Amino acid sequence: MVRKSHFSKLLFLLMIGLVVGSYSTAFAKSEYGKGNGNQSAVPKIEYTVSMTRPWTHMLEVEMKLTSDSMPEKAEVKMAVWTPGSYLIREYAKHVMDFVVLDGSGNSLEWRKTSKNTWQIDTNGAKELKIGYQVYANELTVRTNELNYEHAFFTPAALFMYPKGHLAAPSTVRVLPYGNWKVATGLKSTGDPNTFSSPNFDILFDSPFEVSDFKEKKFTVRGKPHRYVVTGEGNYDLDRIAEDTAKIIEQSYQIFGELPYDDYLFILNLRGGGGLEHLNSTALQWNRFGFASPNNYRRFLGLVAHEFFHLYNVKRLRPDPLGPFDYENENYTKLLWVAEGATSYYEWVLMRRANLVDAKGVLRNYANIAESLQRRPGRFQTSLEEASFDAWIKAYRTDENAVNNQISYYSKGELVNFLLDIQIQAGSNGSKSLDDVFRYLYAENYKKGKTFTSEDYQKACEMMAGKSLDGFFKKYVSGREELAYSELLEPMGLRMLQLRPENDAPRLGANLASGTGGVKVNSIPVDTAAYEAGLNADDLIIAVDGYRATSQNALNRYIGMKKAGDKIELTVFRHNRLRKIPVLLGKTPASGYSIMPVTNPTDAQRSLFKSYLLEDLD
How are beta strands 44-50 and 170-175 bridged, if at all? Predict the structure, then answer.
């Protein structure tokens, strides 16, 4: 049906400023191949993005399609997810005021035929002007935001595409608000605000930042790089660029190339996180999160992570991540490599760039191990299963996630670290995980192929000079407990528990101070709270008749008891008062630390130094 409301406003928007320059074929060789879809009668595709009233959060889009062979019923579609973020996000839900005109300005009938598909009666038209608005009020690296400060948009969340023509080229013209400037990884057509894309894989992989941003340009290996930063904060952009250049150089040392013409870092100083792209990345960080050494190191870790993705995932891609199906889930068992190995290389790159020391690296892995050991879910979900189920679990955690899930990021990072040690030990230090990625990059990406789980294991075994089947069956496809000290031993290291199990009393629930009491967030299995029947979302208001005003107050009271003592918790559950007797448990072992073995051998010392660039002491 045709929406009559707001039609006059949209008709005006469609008729002004819509003459877009001819699109460039620069960057025409897609890193994803030739795309997918039927390419018969490829239409000319031009977009114009306006932001005339940023306080409304409405991005205004015109999509102009021109073809001598326009189908009788044309269809345009909206992606439901964006690569790198494995969740169906239903971007079409933000579309408003959809309208279609032919080249003479006549309105055309249309209808929705699915959640993300609009069907248009073209009536013989050779030109369609499709206008719509997208509500943009969510700042993440995978969504859109328009407000008084900037416009950030993810093309998959903004631009529709003609059915069957994902491999078609397009141009994007941006009409900035006020004095705002435009930054994107797409190639300019010559007009500073008009850009070309050879296909939709490239377009959807090129986020835009439009604001009065600060900019810093720098060069690495003769290639231009730049940061654009929106927001005020305590950052030092010169220092960030200098340290980022060190990370880029170390990435170059692994692969021997920087496979792009230029690279863009988009940094918004709100929120947190990052998303990788082919020749750019979108980063978000707390505006005051740069001053402390630890926070700054974490920021550089984010930079290293997203930059390493330009090799691992954006080019060397796990099967079946490309060509992408933008309407459905794209399942893979290899996110523990795509994300976990990339998380591992955060630390590899930072150590080699001398941005963190060896103790910091080992402390990171010890912390990951301790976090993993607190999750009963490690016995329920393997790394491959966590990767495959990312679409229904990773971004949809609930109160039981601690019992049935693990992170393919953190456990994947830890397992790739331990795998690297096995490769280095098996090859007497002559090979490492670097060689695995170099091999796959040459044999798969360079030859236009994705890689499988079997490919990854085979490449690891090739470099290790031995079978690693047991390792993969136990720790990748299987759910066995990681044998930390055994796996660390070739490098002269062992995992220590600084605090063994003891009789200190433990409730076992994950708590947070709430309004009027202490809220139960989650309850790991095999804890006193689990056995007593405490529930997530219970509000503890008293213990043994004494008011529980905060988590600290509750912990202080329980701390006066010992394991095996009984207490009575008074809780509100669904606004009804209940009393729950609890038999307090013991405090489990904690305080993991990776330390040198006693009397390390020369071989262990050599392997440690070649890996962490410091002496083992």
Answer: parallel
Total domains in the fold of the chain:
3
> d(Cα 236, Cα 300) in Å, to the nearest integer?
13
- CA distance to 77, 164, 362, per residue, from 39 (Å): 16, 7, 52
* Cβ within 8 Å of residue 228, ≥6 positions away: 183, 209, 213, 214, 215, 264, 265, 266, 267
Running DSSP on this structure, what letter comes out for residue 377? G
Does 424 map to a domain?
A: yes
Nearest CA to 419 out of 382, 379, 366, 459 is that of 459
Cis peptide before 581 (omega within 30 of 0): no
CA trace torsion 250, 253, 257, 262 (10° rounding):
20
pLDDT score, position 322: 75
How far is 410 from 20, CA to CA, in rounded Å?
46
User: Which domain does 158 fall in, by range?
Assistant: 7-209
Tokens of 262: 């230029």
Assess contact for 529 and 520: CB atoms under 8 A.
Answer: yes
Do 494 and 507 have their domain in common?
no
Three-state secondary-structure class, residue 320:
coil
For 477-524, how does the pLDDT look when each residue is reduced to its tens digit (9 = 90+)? 999 999 999 999 999 999 999 899 999 999 999 999 989 999 999 999
